[in-house]
Amino acid sequence: MFKRNHLALTAIFLWVLTLVVFGYFVYFGTLTGEVEGGRKVIQVTASELAFIQERMIFSLKQIAQIQAALAVEDLKAIVEPARSLGRGNGVEAPKSLPLKMPFDFRRLIVTNQEIFSGMAEKSAQGAFPSELQEDLTRVLKNCHECHAKFKVVAGE
Fold it and tell me: Residue 16 and residue 119: Cα distance in Å, rounded?
């Protein structure tokens, strides 16, 4: 009887320990330390870094298109660039990447995707350009927050 209870308690303990460790990595990611200015370093592989850089460049191009369309109040020209940055845009990150990212990093990405999805919908429905400009300002504030908090580097 004692061996059976002991085995059950050991199994439960290991299960809880696994959940705690997994939860730690889901919430904090695999941070490697701090750099100057208090930014957290996120270490990724070279291919993951290339993916992130390609997405950043693509995002900047799309944001420039949105800004240009807002300048001339061409709401129809906002729909596609905003949709390409929104939720369900068909872009899949490398499978290992999300576990390396801290919760705050992922939260900012998801928030921006939701804002862009909303912008695409609002543009298609003829929203006021000032409302879309406010959304874009929120996105850029999130971008600044992320770049101020984190630095993504390729590991060995």
Answer: 42
Give me the count of residues in the chain.
156
Q: Tens of pLDDT along 48-66? A: 999 999 999 999 999 999 9
CA–CA dist 30, 101 (Å, integer): 7
Low-confidence ranges of the chain (pLDDT < 70): 1-4, 21-36, 156
29: left (phi over 0), alpha (psi -120 to 50) or beta: left
Measure CA of the first residue to CA of the last residue in the chain; give whole Å. Answer: 50
DSSP 151: E
Q: Is the pTM of this model over 0.70?
A: yes
Q: Where are the alpha helices (DSSP H) in the chain?
A: 2-28, 46-71, 76-85, 97-100, 103-124, 129-149
Cα separation, 68 vs 126, whole angstroms:
17
